[in-house]
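User: I'll paste a sequence; please echo it back and then give the predicted structure.

Assistant: Echoing your sequence first, then the prediction.
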Amino acid sequence: MSDFQPYEIIEGDYDKGMVLLADHATNLLPQAYGNLGLPQAAFQRHIAFDIGIEGLTRKLAAQLRVPAVMSRFSRLLIDPNRGEDDPTLIMKISDGAIIPGNHPITQDEWDLRLNTYHRPYHNAVGSVLDTVADKSGKAPLVFSLHSYTPFWKDVPRPWHAAVLWDTDHRAVTPLIARLRAAGDILVGDNEPYDGALKGDTMYRHCMIKGIPHALLEVRQDLIGDEAGIADWAQRLAPIFAAMNDDPTLHEYQQFASRTGPY
């Protein structure tokens, strides 16, 4: 398992002051875990990764010339967008799929996954954010990229994209406004999920450090192929760039979290 790289850093101009993150970029597993007892088809579903996000992150990083950090392991192994004390960190069941390789699980195996995959990814995120802050001389502007299914159970999700947040709305308000300004998409504000999750990536690296940030979800059917990914990269790149030019979005500022005290 030691030859499995748990993250990838896409290099860019660190002095630009922007960082892209992709917690659920891939559906990969170390060879030693096989398929965690699941059929191979399960790894093409959203339970294994955020469909379309690896391609979107790569295109945006290239167009904007900014660094990005992507996880290189499936969230079925361990979820990088969960705090270490979150009971859903290693899922036993996900959207109806029982994950045999995760139940039962020993404390030693739990700790192994934390130390081998989860912590190295977060160490990489922290390192890139620190480098951007040092080289740009300002707080990084962070965009975390995710995707969601068009339906949950039988309930349609009409939003083409959604912005999730806790209480720090500095980057959220202009991002939603700029997305809606095009007039051709429906944009969710903390829909279909709420962005307040203590211990998740945005909480850990941005909320408690006072770094401006926004978590953007794109509906998976819109970025399920190269054409869709290219369209959304073309849509998002100028929005991110314009926001990055705003000096007020590069200030450290503490916000109280709705998930409870730090």
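The helical segments are 53-64, 107-136, 172-181, 201-205, 226-244. The first strand starts at residue 7 and ends at 10.
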